[in-house]
Amino acid sequence: MSQRKRVAHAGSQNRVPRVSRQVVLDEDDDGDASYTQPTSSQVQKARENYTPVQVDRKVAEVVQFILIKDQKKIPIRRTDIVKHVIKEYKALYQDIMKRADRIFEQVFGLKLVEIDAKNHIYILINKLQPVPGEPISMCPGNPKTGLLFVILSVIFMKGGTVKENVVWNTLKKLRVDVGEKHEEFGDVKKVVTEEFVRQKYLEYLRIPHTEPLEHEFRWGQRAEKEVSKMKVLEFVGELHSQEPQSWTQQYREATSGESSQR
Amino acid sequence: MSESRRRVSRGSQEESAAHTNGVGGRSRSERAADTGDEDEGAGPSGIHEEDDDPARRREIRSQYRDLINSVQQNREDMLNPANNKLIDVLEEANKLFANVRQAREAALDAQLLVLATDLGREKASQLHAEGSSFDPSAFAEHLLSFMGLNRLEEEEDDQEGLDGYLPPDAWQKLSKRAEHCFKTAPSFHYLLGSFLAEPPPPRQRVERQRKAPSKEAKRMMPTQLKKMEESHQEATEKEVERILGCLRSYYADDPESPISYYEFVVDPASFSRTVENIFHTSFLIRDGLARIYLDSEKLPCIAPVEDGEIEPSGNATRHQCVISISPSTWKEIIEAFEIKQALIPTVQMLTQEG
């Protein structure tokens, strides 16, 4: 395949030297996988160079790559997709991703979401609404989801930002002591401040000018996309036997969140 | 600077507490009086002598620290909207500040101010929240009930303040319900398992790197070892032969007088040469090329065995013994036998002579 490409490039070299120089530069970039926006002529050329079957195959590879990467729920970076899968098809990046996204939506019921437009980081979220009364999956629940829910709901109910001590104190009441090893979660502090942060469920930020050092929690970008504030509020209301509307401010935020996502 | 900040913080505090008491306005006027005092006290002329009294300053600092400690320790209590403890603390700080004249105390005042402002902000946020307030502790209690906490049963290792029994599937239960709030994509798994998600290439690279040097090492090792062994053996053999030559020439010079073993072996200039000589001479004895016997004074003497005397069957008369020598015994021997010169010349000496 790459030979075909090179032959094609060699052929064009004689006629259009300027374009060929660009192509050579691009090939040097392959190593560090930096992605540069291809020119429309490059895209055009790439479309001509690869057969539809080849491109289909690339799309399938990208889909599989993202599905496997998502197993650990660590956001997927564009540089990784380009470096490991797309490689010399780089000029067709936009085409391939658009088609991969369509496959996620139509075949898997998932949605590929770019959570960071600057660094191009993607996550997968579920597009399908759970059927009321039906279990979401046959697998036993991952207990970490519960832990995460507690933290996210405390942050949300406290107005979006919460000092770490509030979280640790709440967890302690739930028999989860940060200082001790928990039988289900292991090193709780590590799970919360490293795993959840890496997965972009939480942000763990230093509060400036604090002595001793203090940190605060916020919702991470994945949480913003993946977690429904309204559903959190409903569940919190259910727990308190209170109407979600009784938390006026939170209710307002949850409704605006729902409408902006639709 | 600290002055203006204090005003600001008081302002916000008053807002939050205005409906509960009327202290705010009064305290502000007091405050103004305080600052007036201060201006008189610490005029442009500088620090008065009475202001620099170390005992007094120490007392002020200690009071500040106590106050800061009590604020830190009773944080939750002070946040409670039902009381005015924060105001009380600020009143007290104002009283203390009236006597503050120097930067070190003022710094403590500023530290307390930071704490108080922080508490004030949090208190204000409680009031600001429209509708119901949210209390994480109450939330935790509700969650525990949801998770199936049995408050009647005692936890085996009962921790302070926590009673009741939490079933082992508590977090599972919460997770199952919480999942409804998440639009998490179900993660994808192969039915029959899969290879590790990590790509194998890096592992291969490591193997290749390991293989390459090991092959080379295998090729190198035997030649290197052979050489070392050969040269070592050769050196020993040569040395043994050289010593035999020495012994024979001394014997030939004067076959009648016995050669003292110690005089023969000891090199007065070098302990290590002495040990080497003993080592090499032992080969002569082992191979039956020399013999050791005791003279009339029971001192060991050495003599070469003449070719005709070699008796292959005379093994039965052979004895073994271990000779030990230390630098101190070596020195004693040199003194006792008055050894001035080595009987076995060193290799260097030989080459010089040659």
Automatic annotation (TrEMBL), chain A:
<feature type="compositionally biased region" description="Polar residues">
    <location>
        <begin position="34"/>
        <end position="44"/>
    </location>
</feature>
<dbReference type="Pfam" id="PF01454">
    <property type="entry name" value="MAGE"/>
</dbReference>
<dbReference type="InterPro" id="IPR041899">
    <property type="entry name" value="MAGE_WH2"/>
</dbReference>
<protein>
    <submittedName>
        <fullName>Necdin-like 2</fullName>
    </submittedName>
</protein>
<feature type="compositionally biased region" description="Polar residues">
    <location>
        <begin position="242"/>
        <end position="262"/>
    </location>
</feature>
<feature type="region of interest" description="Disordered">
    <location>
        <begin position="1"/>
        <end position="45"/>
    </location>
</feature>
<dbReference type="InterPro" id="IPR037445">
    <property type="entry name" value="MAGE"/>
</dbReference>
<feature type="domain" description="MAGE">
    <location>
        <begin position="55"/>
        <end position="254"/>
    </location>
</feature>
<feature type="region of interest" description="Disordered">
    <location>
        <begin position="240"/>
        <end position="262"/>
    </location>
</feature>
<dbReference type="GO" id="GO:0005634">
    <property type="term" value="C:nucleus"/>
</dbReference>
<dbReference type="InterPro" id="IPR002190">
    <property type="entry name" value="MHD_dom"/>
</dbReference>
<dbReference type="InterPro" id="IPR041898">
    <property type="entry name" value="MAGE_WH1"/>
</dbReference>
UniProtKB/TrEMBL annotation, chain B:
<keyword id="KW-0227">DNA damage</keyword>
<keyword id="KW-0234">DNA repair</keyword>
<feature type="compositionally biased region" description="Basic and acidic residues">
    <location>
        <begin position="1"/>
        <end position="17"/>
    </location>
</feature>
<dbReference type="GO" id="GO:0006310">
    <property type="term" value="P:DNA recombination"/>
</dbReference>
<feature type="compositionally biased region" description="Basic and acidic residues">
    <location>
        <begin position="204"/>
        <end position="219"/>
    </location>
</feature>
<dbReference type="GO" id="GO:0030915">
    <property type="term" value="C:Smc5-Smc6 complex"/>
</dbReference>
<dbReference type="Pfam" id="PF15412">
    <property type="entry name" value="Nse4-Nse3_bdg"/>
</dbReference>
<keyword id="KW-0779">Telomere</keyword>
<dbReference type="GO" id="GO:0006281">
    <property type="term" value="P:DNA repair"/>
</dbReference>
<dbReference type="GO" id="GO:0000781">
    <property type="term" value="C:chromosome, telomeric region"/>
</dbReference>
<keyword id="KW-0539">Nucleus</keyword>
<feature type="region of interest" description="Disordered">
    <location>
        <begin position="1"/>
        <end position="57"/>
    </location>
</feature>
<dbReference type="InterPro" id="IPR029225">
    <property type="entry name" value="Nse4_Nse3-bd"/>
</dbReference>
<comment type="similarity">
    <text>Belongs to the NSE4 family.</text>
</comment>
<dbReference type="Pfam" id="PF08743">
    <property type="entry name" value="Nse4_C"/>
</dbReference>
<keyword id="KW-0158">Chromosome</keyword>
<dbReference type="InterPro" id="IPR027786">
    <property type="entry name" value="Nse4/EID"/>
</dbReference>
<feature type="domain" description="Non-structural maintenance of chromosome element 4 C-terminal">
    <location>
        <begin position="258"/>
        <end position="344"/>
    </location>
</feature>
<dbReference type="InterPro" id="IPR014854">
    <property type="entry name" value="Nse4_C"/>
</dbReference>
<feature type="domain" description="Nse4/EID protein Nse3/MAGE-binding">
    <location>
        <begin position="109"/>
        <end position="160"/>
    </location>
</feature>
<protein>
    <recommendedName>
        <fullName>Non-structural maintenance of chromosomes element 4</fullName>
    </recommendedName>
</protein>
<comment type="function">
    <text>Component of the SMC5-SMC6 complex, that promotes sister chromatid alignment after DNA damage and facilitates double-stranded DNA breaks (DSBs) repair via homologous recombination between sister chromatids.</text>
</comment>
